[in-house]
Design a protein that fits this description.
heterodimer; A: alpha/beta; FAD/NAD(P)-binding domain; eight-stranded mixed beta sheet; six-stranded antiparallel beta sheet; 22 strands; globular; B: mainly alpha; Cytochrome Bc1 Complex, Chain D, domain 2; two-stranded antiparallel ribbon; two-stranded antiparallel sheet; 20 helices; 6 strands; 4% strand
């Protein structure tokens, strides 16, 4: 029997970026807020201290900052006729556990989606006709526009202290920035990071090919910064240990370095760690959430009553909790009815290793130190002749030169022994890699539901993922990879290695943790789980925040949009919901 | 030594001229127990940082129970909430004044000078009454006081009468007519409520501050508190009054960041003080003489004693690049307002490098203030650097970028390490 705790105004499930933002904004509004985090508390010191964090084996290989599959994982299959099996080791993606969530270990690649991305179906139909969209492709508009989100993108960027070069301020195109980006009201809070030599080579080659390269927007601080809450950050040292690591000197934006110092000191905010939420409770009408149940490390159950329940866990964990709690109609791929679990999407990546003659010092890197082109993202180019939908950016990142996982050898290099050692010595300082970051559309047969067989440590059914790459994505990715290879060639390398993404999606090699969908936003309760304010259609005092709201995935890293949506939802709660609790959009 | 009657005019005279918070002369309008007097008492209690010692970790504010380590043993702070049986609810205002002014509790029991009555004695009666009026508004907390853990003979409180006779100079602050009103206000705050000398003055074998060397640097709670004198390297000689005000208000300025006990002082006390009062303190501090002549201090041999061994400096430089430069930067200048510079840093160049060794071994956290809520932290290096390495590193820091200071011996690091381990296990 769960111990019933005193009621609070708001309970947040999970304590990463979105919870930090919602917690800060709603406690500022005077509400009593409790956050429940399944993992431990972690902070810059002592957990990410510069004295210990640059340990690739411990963090990047042995996954210290991530969820433990032996406690919680999901099952996976490519198609509905297969039997899904549990992911027993983290592979294709790595959800975080612990305070700060994935905001701790991300690279800091912080983008805005394109205005047309938010009108995915309408825009494609208008430009290319209804017949251009394959029958099984279930893409839809977001219900929110770029212009709606612009002030909230801005707020997230000024929370983080993003380093970058604006390309479009109020419709005026600025040289050196991304000319394809949606109009922003003002420039980035910080100038771009210092260039790596690799990005200089890319910049030159891309310009020769007629493209307009620009420095990627980075949540790595190019200078010291004081953010919108008065929290201070240091200056990036280009140590090259961003992705899979916490930042040791306050120079990568994370909930820890931007929000926690003010949030955790508040009397009306409380964080409980090692609290795994297993269910959202509903009253007898099923239309109102009364709180959540969570389990602590000793297995004791607690009920935390709350007037407002906000799911702020990782994308698929939010969906899992909805399914376990019986909120919203589960999606049925056969009939196409139901919504919870619908439109799961991912991203498709590829790369070209470029073996150059110059020394490029790869170890001097930062997670979002890169130069990109955006000519082939979204609908920035004519898709008519290509006969596919979507796109992505092409970038040369200098994220670091770690010894175990960040080295590249030409295809014909020996795989072991003194030949391998010599190849490594010859190439380590003389290799760069060009990456493509492709969108993935949503499809009728790509979805999340509860597994009929396997259960987690609490005895609940695991989430089941059914997903494969479709022909549209393979063709789009090949198109992007060819363009990347073209730029690589212009760099006049000694050798190249084109790593095309072919065949079925596999859960084993790491690709990206940009999982989206399953609790998508929209304008119609028959095709979306939450309305344009991320409020549940079925249970109006429940909000679901995160990339699970994306109706399909774009060709950019998702964190900027996740942050913008969190501020957007917080604003709707503060300015509309608190004044008149209830559905903000009538179904 | 007889208690002098406080001269009621003192505070009024200084304060009106300076115009700070303390300018609100209580006797003029603040009736006993009036809202104005209580508010003033709250302000003064912050200026005196009463809560810092009189609150145990995780305990009720002002209910006491915090362990205060002294060279003679551990003393526990007492409950000063108005609880009649365990707090000071039954004390009269004369009782309270006597404790503050003479260091004697009701019933004639001597207090230990870990309670800073040698400084509080300088307060005017009106100010002491205001503090008492404020404390009387607190919710009473029933919390028994813990006995001290002092060994004999210090456990006998009567010993303190001898100590008082030798070292305690009782008496309300007397303004210096040669100095400005602002200087006098600053002196009243620094020497009185601020009790800065409790840490920043050297002490004799009996734990009493050496009056002839006031504010020249001293020990407090396993830290060496830097000189507040005008010394160019290890004092405030290079600081402007604005630097001092900013440091006390926010915990950080372009020259330094508060950490250790000073970050608590900033958090609990000085950030709440009126800027004019802080400015007055800065004016007074800037007038303190250096403990050595600036001419001497600019010569390395005079200030540094002997020149460090080149190999040690080279090893220390290597360690600095590996472990420190990421925040404090290769040029030792840090990042303004975020990571403090080590170049020209008075802690690094202190006569006694105890504090810089302490910070390297156990890490530190900057003050959390309303203006700077971050609380940036430096990690501990005790698990990573050997005593020899710390000694080499500190020797490098004290000779790099124009810094001065004696080379450091690994034995000294070992001593500090032992003390810190012992302090940790005591907790």
């Amino acid at each position: 029997m769960a111990t019933k705790l005193p009621a609070v105004d708001v309970v947040l499930v999970g304590f990463g970026w979105t919870a930090g933002i919602l917690g800060q904004e709603l406690s500022d509004a005077g509400l009593q807020v409790v956050a429940l985090e399944r993992g431990a508390f972690r902070d810059t010191v002592p957990d990410f201290a510069t004295t210990q964090i640059q340990d690739e084996l411990r963090y990047a290989v042995r996954n210290e900052l991530f969820e433990e599959p032996e406690r919680e994982t999901l099952t996976f299959r490519n198609s509905m006729d297969q039997t899904a099996l549990p992911m027993r080791h983290l592979g294709s993606f790595k959800p975080a556990a612990g305070a700060g969530g994935a905001g701790v270990h991300w690279n800091g690649q912080n983008w805005r989606f394109l205005p047309t991305d938010f009108l995915q179906r309408t825009h494609i139909e208008q430009r290319y006709g209804k017949g251009f969209i394959p029958a099984d492709m279930t893409i839809q508009d977001w219900g929110v526009t770029y212009d709606d989100l612009e002030p909230f993108y801005d707020r997230f960027e000024y929370l983080c202290g993003i380093s970058g070069q604006a390309g479009n301020i109020n419709g005026r195109i600025h040289d050196g920035g991304n000319p394809f980006e949606g109009a922003r009201k003002r420039g980035f809070p910080l100038p771009p990071l210092k260039r790596s030599y690799g990005t200089v080579l890319f910049d030159k080659a891309a310009k020769e090919a007629g493209y307009k390269p620009f420095p990627c927007p980075a949540a790595n601080t190019s200078q010291a910064y004081k953010n919108i809450y008065g929290v201070q950050m240091g200056e990036c040292t280009y140590c090259g240990y961003c992705e899979w690591f916490g930042c040791g000197n306050y120079s990568k934006s994370s909930p820890q370095t931007t929000i926690f110092p003010v949030l955790l000191g508040k009397d009306n905010f409380k964080l409980r760690t090692h609290a795994s939420v297993t269910k959202v409770l509903l009253d007898s009408t099923g239309k109102r959430a009364t709180g959540v149940v969570y389990v602590d490390l000793q297995g004791r159950e607690y009920e935390q009553p709350a007037d407002l329940v906000i799911l702020t866990a990782f994308a698929q964990h939010n969906v899992h909790l909805l399914l376990l709690s019986g909120i919203g109609k589960p999606y049925d791929p056969r009939s196409g009815n139901g919504v919870v679990g619908r439109n799961y999407a991912y991203q498709i990546t590829s790369s070209v290793d470029v073996f150059v003659n110059d020394i490029v010092n790869p170890f001097m890197g930062a997670g979002a130190l890169g130069q990109a082109i955006d000519e082939f993202n979204g609908d920035n180019f004519d898709h008519g002749p290509q006969k596919f939908i979507g796109g992505g950016y092409i970038a040369l990142w200098t994220t670091g030169g770690r010894p175990i996982l960040q080295h590249h050898l030409p295809k014909d290099a020996p795989k072991w022994g003194s030949g391998w050692k010599k190849a490594m010595a010859d190439n380590y300082l003389r290799t760069v890699s060009i990456a493509t970051h492709g969108s993935v559309m949503s499809y009728r047969d790509a979805y999340l539901d509860l597994d009929p067989t396997y259960r987690d440590v609490y005895g609940n059914p695991l989430l089941r993922l059914t997903f494969d790459f479709h022909d549209n994505e393979h063709r789009m990715s090949k198109f992007l990879t060819d363009k990347a290879a073209g730029i690589a060639k212009a760099m006049k390398p000694r050798a190249m290695h084109v790593k095309q993404r072919d065949g079925h999606y596999t859960i084993v090699p790491y690709q990206t943790t940009h999982n989206t969908g399953g609790a998508i936003m929209g304008t119609d309760p028959r095709t979306s789980v939450v309305n344009r304010y991320l409020q549940s259609w079925d249970v109006p005092n429940l909000f679901v925040v995160g990339s699970c709201a994306f109706p399909q995935n774009a060709g950019y890293n998702p964190t900027g949009t996740v942050g913008a949506l969190a501020y957007w939802a917080a604003n709707a709660i503060r300015t509309q919901y608190l004044k008149k609790p209830g559905a903000l959009v009538s179904a | 030594m007889k208690a002098k009657r406080p001269r009621a005019g003192t505070a009024i005279a200084l304060a009106v001229a300076a115009g700070g918070m303390l300018a609100i002369a209580p006797a003029l309008f603040a009736r006993e127990g009036s809202h104005a007097e209580i508010e003033r008492g709250r302000y003064l209690a912050q200026a005196g940082d009463c809560a810092a010692c009189h609150t145990a970790e995780g305990g009720q504010p002002f209910a006491g129970g915090r362990a205060v380590p002294t060279p003679f043993g551990v003393i526990y702070s007492t409950n000063i909430t108005p609880d009649p049986s365990t707090g000071i609810g039954n004390w009269t205002s004369d009782d309270f004044y006597r404790a503050m002014h003479e260091g004697i509790a009701p019933g004639g029991e001597h207090l230990y000078p870990a309670f800073p009555y040698p400084w509080y004695t300088k307060l005017t009666r009106a100010d002491v009454d205001a503090i008492r009026s404020y404390l009387a508004t607190l919710a009473p907390v029933h919390e028994q006081n813990r006995p001290t853990e002092l060994p004999w003979p210090f456990s006998v409180r009567e010993v303190m009468s001898a100590w008082n006779a030798l070292y305690f100079k009782q008496g309300t602050f007397q303004s210096n007519p040669q100095k400005s009103a602002e200087w006098n206000l600053g002196a009243y705050l620094v020497e009185g409520l601020g009790h800065c000398g409790a840490c920043h003055s050297p002490k004799n074998f009996a734990g009493a501050p050496k009056r002839d060397k006031a504010f020249q640097g001293g020990y407090g709670e396993n830290w060496y508190a830097t000189s507040l004198g005008g010394d160019l390297h290890d004092g405030l000689g290079q600081w402007s009054t604005d630097d001092i005000v900013q440091y006390l208000k926010t915990g950080v300025n372009k020259r330094a960041a508060a950490f250790g006990p000073m970050s608590e002082v900033v958090h609990d006390s000085t950030q709440h003080l009126d800027e004019k009062d802080l400015h007055a303190m800065a004016v007074y501090l800037k007038d303190l003489p250096p403990h050595e002549s600036p001419a001497n201090a600019t010569s390395a041999s005079a200030a540094g004693g002997n020149t460090p061994d080149a190999d040690r400096v080279a090893r220390g430089h290597g360690l600095y690049i590996d472990d420190c430069a990421g925040c404090h930067m290769e040029n030792g200048e840090g990042i303004a307002g975020v990571f403090p510079p080590l170049k020209g840093n008075n802690v690094v160049q202190s006569k006694d490098p105890e504090t810089v060794v302490h910070v390297i071994l156990s890490g530190a956290k900057t003050a959390v203030t309303r203006q700077d809520p971050t609380g940036l932290a430096m990690p501990a290096f005790d698990w990573k650097l050997s005593n020899e390495q710390v000694a080499d590193l500190v020797t490098y820091l004290r000779s790099a970028w124009g810094n001065h200071g004696d080379p450091l011996d690994a034995g000294k690091v070992a001593d500090t390490r032992r003390t810190l381990v012992a302090a940790r296990t005591q907790k």
